[in-house]
Amino acid sequence: MVSETMTVKCAVGLHLRPAGVFANEMLKFSSEVTIVFGDKRVNAKSLLSIMTACIKCGSDITVECSGEDEQEALQRAQKLITEELI
What we know:
Number of strands: 4
CATH topology: Histidine-containing Protein, Chain: A
Oligomer: single chain
């Protein structure tokens, strides 16, 4: 398992559109991907799960990836959260 803590840069946080983009990208990986936000652990491949976590701009989250392509999944998650969902 690999993990990284990062700050959400997207102005609207991980709400409908950015959460959908993130979940769809994570679905491309066979690894299990989890977002840890406070005391919540959510499936990063589920739009609804991400939205119910209420992750706002500036929030620190930890993304955990476990599986055969865990490094690639974590790198993609990091790029999305810190650069592409702005």
